[in-house]
Amino acid sequence: MLENEPTAGRYIPESITNPSVEQMKEMLERHQFVYYKPTAGSLGNGIYRLTYSPKRGYFARYRKKGGNALLRFGSFNSLMRMLQGRHGKQLRGYVVQQGIRLIEIDECPIDFRFHMHKNGNNQWVVVGIGAKKAGRGSVTTHIKNGGSLMTPEQALSRNFGDRAGEVLQHAKSVAITLAQAIETQHQHLIGEIGFDLGIDQEEHVWMFEANAKPGRSIFRHPSLRVEGKSSVEHILEHCLYLSKFRKKEGV
Questions:
Q1: If you compute the radius of gyration of the chain from its CA atoms, what whole number of angstroms results?
Q2: Distances in Å between the alpha carbon of 207 and those of 135, 171, 211, 226, 242?
Q3: Which pLDDT does position 134 carry in this prediction?
Q4: If residue 24 lies in a helix (H) or strand (E), which one and from where to where?
Q5: pTM of the full structure
Q6: Chain CA centroid to CA 11, Å
Q7: 158: which residues sit within 8 A by CB, 6+ positions away?
């Protein structure tokens, strides 16, 4: 939806749905590492981090039976045989996405869940933000895969010091731009979006996923309980807007 959106497209990593073998090889050689993930996946299931090192070969990191697995392949063809054996020769239902060198804490990548809502005035707002630190050796930052949750201020101050607030405000602005662009391109009403965003060392913001039915796990963090309550209130306020009803003052 966003590849031809000039305002939003620059925040999207290069992504190819149902890639050919040739496209997979070219992406790996150009970006050094990519993510290979199911188009209809959830909770980080079925995601591979594929890496290419000219001197060491090809590597595949993924989740296996509650643990993290790492395989090394001497050639690209042997890597592809493994993926095709697991997911079919045509590699349908998957997307390959450019890998981004994200900011880190203790050598573990950090990404962010931005929970977006339409408010009672039909405007997109950022209601809650959780910073997710990947577990050691994990492909994703999901909590059940060993990740940990912190506030965005904690994560950004470790990387950008006094400029953390400025970086966060820019990311919020990008999130609103992305939400507006998706709404423009989507044919149905949308009132809530969960963005998985990353920030690299050059402070560029990247959007990895947009979830139409986002989970609420970030609101379990003690510092985000107020935001969790606000999320529910925004749903009600936007429903009132859509229904043309108005909440009475003091109610």
A1: 19
A2: 20, 10, 11, 25, 28
A3: 82
A4: helix 21-31
A5: 0.84
A6: 12
A7: 105
